[in-house]
Amino acid sequence: MIADILADTKTRMDRAVEAAKEDFATVRTGRANPQLFQKVQVEYYGTPTPLAQLASLNAPEARTLVITPYDKSALKAIEQAIRDMPNLGANPTNDGNIVRVTMPELTADRRKEYVKLVKSKAEDAKVHVRGIRRKSKDELDALKGEVSDDDLARAEKELDAVTKTHVELIDEALKRKEAELLEV
């Protein structure tokens, strides 16, 4: 029973760390990267649809991204969705077949702003990991009559170790992204 709770906790925390890394990837650096557009939702026939399902994304140059829609009628909607995306600062243009997005050069102030944004996302991820820990601790406390106090104490120590490891993984990903953002 305790092993199941700990295994489930570890799995959920792993997913939280992966989600944080994916979130970090959506914050732009000095290069155009298709992952920046991972969370863009395009209004397609009245339904918000992920951009990756509507078009292929290529980065032919360092600061240019070319989006080729599978359906040409979605061009305007794709262009509008990119223009409306916060924290991107890109101005898309379309030539009737593709949408070309040229990323502006990052200023020092903008880089610092992005670092703050990434730190905020990291803190949200850590809060989520701690929330998972709290739920697991409650599940362990519910087993109080069924298992020995020593087993519960050992399980709580293991739970704390798993939590600490996952928080450190988030911190490492944050440091990497911060270094990437501040690199000129």
UniProtKB/TrEMBL annotation:
Pfam families, per the entry: RRF
Main location: cytoplasm
InterPro entries: Ribosome_recyc_fac (IPR002661), Ribosome_recyc_fac_dom (IPR023584)
Keywords per UniProt: Cytoplasm, Protein biosynthesis
Locations listed in the record: Cytoplasm
Record domain Ribosome recycling factor: where: 21-182
Similarity remark: Belongs to the RRF family.
Function: Responsible for the release of ribosomes from messenger RNA at the termination of protein biosynthesis. May increase the efficiency of translation by recycling ribosomes from one round of translation to another.
HAMAP family linked to this entry: RRF
PANTHER family: MITOCHONDRIAL RIBOSOME RECYCLING FACTOR PSEUDO 1, RIBOSOME RECYCLING FACTOR
Protein name in UniProt: Ribosome-recycling factor
